[in-house]
Design a protein that fits this description.
There is one protein chain. The protein is mainly α and 212 residues long. Helices cover 65% and strands 0% of the residues. The chain has one domain. It has nine helices and no strands.
C-alpha cells in the first residue's frame, strides 16, 4: 500500500495536504467570508424546509437531504487533494505518528481532521480511503472507533457545551477548566477508544475476514 513518491511530488503533496488541513480544519472560516472552509461552504438548509420539532418521518427525510451536499463536497475535495498528492504526503509525514498512536496510516489524517468538524465528511472520506484501498479492513475498524466516539467534537462542543463553562453559580464562580482542557480530554479518550478497538481487532479479526 506504500507508494514511492518523488521529491517534486512530495513538495506538491505537502502543499496540498496543508490546504486540506486548512479547508477541513476550520482554520479559514473567517477568511474572505469562509469560502475556503468546509463547514461554511456546506451550511444548512433554510428553516422553512424543516418540520416543527424534527421528530416526524418527513423531518427525518429532510434532515437526510442536508447530508447530501456535505458528503458530495467532501468527496470532491478529497479527490482533488489526492490528485495533487496530499494523501501520499500524509502517508509520508504522518504515518510515523498515527501508526504507533492508533495503528492507522498517515493517509487517514485528512479524514481525521474532517471528522472533528463534520461526521458526514469524516465518514464519507473514510469510505473513500477504503474504496481506494488506501486502508485495510482492520484499519477501517480502528479508525471508525476513533470517529464514532464524540464525532465532530469541535463543532458540537464549541457550539453546544463550551458556553456552559462561562455560566457562574450564585457566588460568581465559573467552572475551573478551560475549553482546551475539555477538548484535550475528549481527544485523549477518542484515542483510547481507538486503541481498545485495535486490541480487539488484533485478537479477534482475521486478515482475510470478509467485510460485511
Amino acid at each position: 500500500m506504500r507508494e514511492e513518491i518523488s521529491p517534486k511530488m512530495l513538495i506538491a503533496g505537502t502543499v496540498s495536504l496543508v490546504c486540506a488541513v486548512i479547508f477541513f480544519g476550520g482554520f479559514a472560516k473567517d477568511l474572505w467570508g469562509g469560502i475556503f472552509d468546509f463547514s461554511k461552504l456546506t451550511g444548512q438548509f433554510p428553516d422553512w424546509l424543516k418540520t416543527s420539532g424534527g421528530m416526524s418521518a418527513k423531518g427525518g427525510f429532510l434532515f437526510a437531504l442536508t447530508l447530501v451536499p456535505s458528503v458530495m463536497l467532501a468527496l470532491g475535495f478529497v479527490a482533488i487533494f489526492e490528485h495533487y498528492g496530499a494523501l501520499a504526503a500524509a502517508s509520508k509525514w504522518l504515518s510515523p505518528i498515527l501508526k504507533p498512536l492508533m495503528g492507522i496510516p498517515g493517509v487517514c489524517s485528512i479524514s481525521l481532521i474532517a471528522s472533528t468538524q463534520s461526521t458526514d465528511a469524516g465518514s464519507s472520506t473514510t469510505k473513500f480511503l477504503r474504496n481506494e484501498d488506501k486502508i485495510t479492513h482492520k484499519e477501517l475498524l480502528i479508525f471508525s472507533a476513533f470517529q464514532f466516539s464524540a464525532g465532530a467534537l469541535l463543532t458540537n462542543f464549541l457550539s453546544s457545551f463550551a458556553p456552559l463553562l462561562q455560566v457562574s453559580d450564585q457566588f460568581g464562580n465559573v467552572a475551573p477548566v478551560s475549553i482546551a482542557m475539555c477538548l484535550g480530554v475528549i481527544f485523549i479518550f477518542k484515542i483510547f477508544g481507538a486503541n481498545l478497538m485495535r486490541l480487539y481487532v488484533k485478537k479477534f479479526v482475521k486478515e482475510d475476514e470478509a467485510e460485511v
